[in-house]
């Protein structure tokens, strides 16, 4: 008999939902970190690797906090004897997850420190020895890394809210909260593309959408701690506060970084982050070769 069966047999869907939310987010976080790690190594983005180390540390801390939460959930969702049995049965599994994350964080930090010099040399070769250009490229890397972490925390926030709505379904709330996920994905993806191509007006519009997302996150926090709706979020208050708070902080930092990126437009960075296609380069070279020929004929 599984943990879910034991909880469901006791007809305590609230505890089951809380456990599924926690473990589901943990699985998604680890898979997303794996994808971001590959992406950071492929792009030689030291900033993203540092962000992953910090994120891993956060997951480690979150896992430690959730040990007590899971035990309390099991105790409240089952009778006392069954609760003690389940805690003894899954005691090792609950502890081993943050332990592995802690060891992984130490190893990741060590390898990031070792890779820093290699990646710095690659940036020096591919970008420029100019200090100002390196600073612009550093700002661009920070911006791209922030966008990737924004997605995870906003998605985690909305996932938990949707689970709350499933417990107390309201059609309009579900539609609004579900629509935030694709809007956020589109905003973050387009922001990266517009910044890469130095589209000032388009990026400013994306900043406006980010401000709307920030306002939505503030509304979530206010609603969660209001007297009227506090009971709806009681099962997810700690984790939802963490995710919404981190999402809010990251979105504000992303907007601020967007302003810095806009100030760096038209200063030569575009040629390094979005170089022209080879076909265009060849045509320009051909034109430059034809011009002196016509001059000689004249």
TrEMBL record:
GO CC aspect terms: Golgi apparatus
Keywords carried by this UniProt record: Membrane, Transmembrane, Transmembrane helix
InterPro entries linked: UPF0658_Golgi
TM stretches of this protein: 20-37, 49-67, 89-113, 142-168, 174-191, 203-222, 242-265
Protein name, UniProt field: Uncharacterized protein
């Amino acid at each position: 008999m599984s943990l879910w069966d034991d909880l469901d047999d006791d007809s305590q869907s609230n505890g089951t939902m809380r456990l599924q939310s926690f473990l589901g987010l943990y699985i998604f976080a680890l898979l997303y970190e794996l994808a971001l790690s590959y992406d950071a190594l492929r792009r030689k983005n030291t900033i993203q690797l540092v962000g992953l180390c910090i994120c891993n540390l956060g997951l480690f801390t979150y896992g430690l906090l959730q040990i007590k939460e899971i035990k309390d959930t099991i105790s409240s969702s089952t009778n006392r004897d069954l609760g003690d049995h389940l805690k003894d049965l899954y005691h090792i599994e609950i502890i081993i997850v943050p332990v592995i994350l802690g060891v992984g964080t130490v190893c990741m930090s060590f390898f990031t420190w070792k890779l820093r010099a290699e990646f710095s040399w690659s940036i020096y070769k591919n970008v420029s020895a100019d200090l100002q250009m390196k600073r612009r490229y550093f700002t661009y890397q920070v911006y791209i890394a922030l966008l990737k972490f924004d997605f995870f925390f906003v998605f985690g926030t909305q996932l938990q809210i949707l689970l709350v709505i499933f417990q107390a379904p309201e059609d309009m709330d579900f539609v609004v909260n579900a629509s935030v996920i694709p809007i956020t994905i589109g905003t973050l993806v387009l922001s990266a593309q517009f910044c890469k191509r130095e589209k000032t007006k388009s990026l400013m519009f994306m900043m406006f959408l980010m401000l709307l997302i920030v306002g939505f996150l503030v509304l979530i926090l206010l609603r969660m701690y209001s007297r009227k709706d506090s009971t709806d979020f009681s099962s997810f208050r700690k984790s939802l506060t963490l995710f919404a708070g981190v999402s809010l902080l990251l979105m504000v930092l992303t907007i601020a970084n967007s302003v810095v990126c806009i100030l760096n437009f038209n200063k030569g960075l575009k040629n390094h982050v979005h170089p022209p296609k080879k076909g265009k380069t060849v045509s320009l070279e051909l034109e430059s070769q034809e011009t002196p020929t016509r001059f000689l004929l004249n």
